[in-house]
Amino acid sequence: MSETAGRLRLLLIEDDPALGPLIEEVLSETYDVDRRVDGRDGLIAGLDHDYDVVVLDRRLPSLDGIAVVRALRRGRVAVPVLMLTALGTVRDRVEGLDGGADDYLVKPFEFDELLARLRALTRSFADSGVRLPVGSWTFTPADRILTSPYGGSVVLTDRESGLLAVLAAEPDRTFSREHLLRVVFADSELPGTVDTYVHYLRRKTERDIVLTVRNRGYRLGAL
């Protein structure tokens, strides 16, 4: 939280000379806005300062938006990120979300929708400090971190975290590949994608963290 009137601090990374100042003006009615017009400068700000939410353009000078988000996540910055872009295909959205963004808004957009999405993002992160037990591991969905019982932690990708969050929320339930594909992954992908990400989770942690239920799908393991 910002110390100024208890308002949330927002990092805006947008280089458009017309749209950038307009977004900053609108958001400043609700947030303490720090605007940067260069991807590298925005990344440095995001790593060096504490923000409550980040809004950034995808196409930026020196470093594009996806590279900025990936670098923030590698730096263990778990702040919610909303990406603004004129690129609106399914593949573009998937790339942005896989890069570590939490939401994706296509230009042109209405400011009411931008503000509503920011409210939802910050509310979700404020409420998501919960830690879920995964066997002897501890999973914190908000920052995508699995803490090992032997010390140390594993940082998951957005998709790995999304998959584990669904399984951990109902540990006694077996989920079909089709269900997991629908709620975690892009509609255009094949059910084999689920198998691939289960493999990633096992490789990063331990074999029985996700159990295969023959002819039915997957459930949380390591119980």
TrEMBL record:
Q: What CDD domains does the record tag this protein with?
A: trans_reg_C
Q: What are the DNA-binding region positions? A: 129-222
Q: Show where the Response regulatory domain sits.
A: 9-122
Q: Which domain of life is it from?
A: Bacteria
Q: Which residues form the OmpR/PhoB-type domain?
A: 129-222
Asked if the Swiss-Prot or TrEMBL record annotates the protein with the keyword Zinc-finger, the reply is no
Single GO molecular function: transcription cis-regulatory region binding
* Record carries keyword Metal-binding: no
User: Residues bearing 4-aspartylphosphate?
Assistant: 57
Its annotated compartments are: Cytoplasm
Gene3D superfamilies (UniProt xref): 3.40.50.2300, 6.10.250.690, Winged helix-like DNA-binding domain superfamily/Winged helix DNA-binding domain (1.10.10.10)
Query: Which Pfam families did the record assign?
Result: Response_reg, Trans_reg_C
Keywords from UniProt, A to Z, are: DNA-binding, Phosphoprotein, Transcription, Transcription regulation, Two-component regulatory system
What are the transmembrane regions?
none
Please give a single GO biological process term from the UniProt record: regulation of DNA-templated transcription
Report one GO cellular component. Answer: protein-DNA complex
- Name of the protein described by the UniProt record: Two-component system response regulator QseB
Q: Which organism is it from?
A: Frondihabitans australicus
